[in-house]
Amino acid sequence: MEFRRKRRSSVEIGLIPMIDVLLVLLFFFMVATTFRHHSELKINLPEAAGSEAAQDNQVLNLFIDANGAYSLTGSDGKALALANPNLDGLKAALAQQSAAARQLPLIINADGKAQHQAVVSALDAANQLGFHHLSFAINPPERP
Q1: Which tens digit of pLDDT belongs to each residue from 62-82?
Q2: Is 79 helix (H, G, I), strand (E, B) or coil?
Q3: Which CATH architecture has domain 56-136?
Q4: pLDDT score recorded for residue 24
Q5: Residue 45 — very low, low, confident or very high, per pLDDT cuts 50/70/90?
Q6: What angle do CA 25, 29, 31 make, to 5 degrees?
Q7: What are the E-state strand segments in 24-131?
Q8: Predicted structure pTM score
Q9: Per-domain residue ranges for the chain?
């Protein structure tokens, strides 16, 4: 009996079939992929234009400095004395003005370094006292 070992053929990885399979997969994913356009949100931003009430000085101006202290200027242009420059003093001064000037616009002039919480607290106090015409003062755009 003669036992011969069979000669094994060498194992090779065929690159041509692998490239064919990869090209088929690439083609499948290119066709199957849906190209979506992300929806764009169009926002109409307000423009800074002076209103008649602001030009006639018939507004209440609320100033918030960088430390969060409040000060108020009445419709006559004179500074109103706040008992203390914190939120309680602001509520008291706004309550005093709300009897006669609740329909007047309240313009909030906040320092750029003022805390967000101070501005939100002032908005909340004005809303609680019945001021509904609120606006923010802005710096006019620089012209070239």
Answers
A1: 888 888 888 888 766 677 767
A2: strand
A3: 2-Layer Sandwich (3.30)
A4: 95
A5: low
A6: 115
A7: 60-64, 70-73, 79-80, 106-110
A8: 0.54
A9: 56-136
